[in-house]
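Tip: read the tokens left to right.
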């Protein structure tokens, strides 16, 4: 329980800071922005290094750590094969994240991205046989409406990157919603059915995602990288943003392991409110009445979802007999 709520708290803080930093770092001239594929590659390297450090510290031996990695990757090929799909999907999604925020303003992106909550809930019903009560479905509706209202009413909509191509941005967000739901629910099933630690699972995912990231970088941006260098546009903000985003991947894995995807979605939705509040505090953007109404709907949805879970008919009958 402590790990679950610690992960949710840290994930919420990470999700609050990310839109603010991405908005700032992508709102530059085209020749001064960082390469998204390079950023995703560095994120994978950071995540791999962080997980390796934690496991080496736990084992207190580099040799034992390397032996466990060998056993986890090559000694259990079936389990390794299971994470290939989400590893490729997450690499694609990380690139789509930056593409969407390049072509759409932050408000439109945040509103449309809330559709992943519905797709996640539907896939949880299909893949994990997770039932939701009618009150929980109503709570999901309130969540999407409230989060969308908060973002729509925010006057920070024009503070994001310039709108370049709405169609590309919309396609990117649609793909993110679909892939996020599939990979998240699938990975939850893999993680909760595996005895391997969260950190070793992330090492598996990183080792698979690294070659995919390298191939993406060579295919999409190699000519520009040769001309401008790999780390064009990198400053201390890009470094902090990259490290924070890399940490977010580990936090999501922790939340998936000890909670579920719906709780993760709520943490991210609450982060939308926090991000807008952060814009208010940092950039003196005063929230409107519609913002306050949206925030209230989000809070109400969390209370309803937590208070009225699905109860099986057998439990209801036992409760009625006991009553």
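Filled-in amino acids:
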């Amino acid at each position: 329980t402590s790990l679950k709520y610690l992960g949710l708290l840290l994930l919420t803080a990470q999700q609050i800071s990310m839109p603010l930093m991405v908005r700032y770092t992508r709102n530059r001239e085209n020749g001064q922005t960082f390469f998204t594929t390079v950023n995703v590659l560095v994120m994978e390297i950071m995540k791999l290094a962080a997980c390796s450090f934690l496991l080496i510290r736990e084992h207190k031996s580099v040799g034992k750590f390397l032996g466990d990695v060998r056993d986890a990757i090559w000694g259990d090929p079936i389990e390794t094969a299971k994470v290939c799909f989400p590893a490729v999907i997450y690499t694609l999604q990380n690139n789509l994240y930056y593409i969407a925020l390049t072509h759409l303003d932050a408000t439109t992106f945040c509103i449309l991205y809330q559709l992943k909550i519905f797709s996640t809930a539907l896939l949880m019903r299909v893949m994990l046989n997770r039932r939701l009560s009618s009150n929980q479905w109503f709570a999901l509706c309130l969540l999407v409406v409230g989060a969308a209202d908060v973002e729509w009413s925010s006057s920070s909509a024009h503070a994001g990157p310039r709108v370049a191509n709405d169609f590309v941005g919309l396609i990117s967000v649609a793909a993110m919603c679909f892939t996020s739901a599939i990979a998240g629910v699938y990975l939850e099933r893999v993680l909760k059915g595996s005895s391997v630690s969260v950190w070793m699972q992330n090492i598996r995912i990183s080792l698979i995602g690294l070659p995919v990231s390298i191939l993406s970088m060579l295919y999409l941006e190699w000519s520009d990288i040769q001309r401008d260098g790999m780390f064009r546009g990198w400053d201390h903000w890009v470094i902090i943003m990259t490290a924070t985003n890399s940490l977010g991947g580990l936090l999501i894995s922790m939340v998936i392991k000890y909670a579920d995807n719906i709780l993760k979605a709520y943490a991210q939705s609450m982060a939308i409110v926090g991000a807008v509040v952060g814009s208010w505090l940092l950039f003196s953007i005063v929230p409107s009445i519609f913002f306050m109404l949206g925030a209230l709907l989000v809070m109400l949805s969390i209370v309803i979802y937590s208070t009225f879970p699905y109860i099986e008919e057998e439990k209801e009958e036992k409760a009625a007999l006991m009553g």
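The chain is about 80% helix and 0% strand. The chain has a mean pLDDT of 76.
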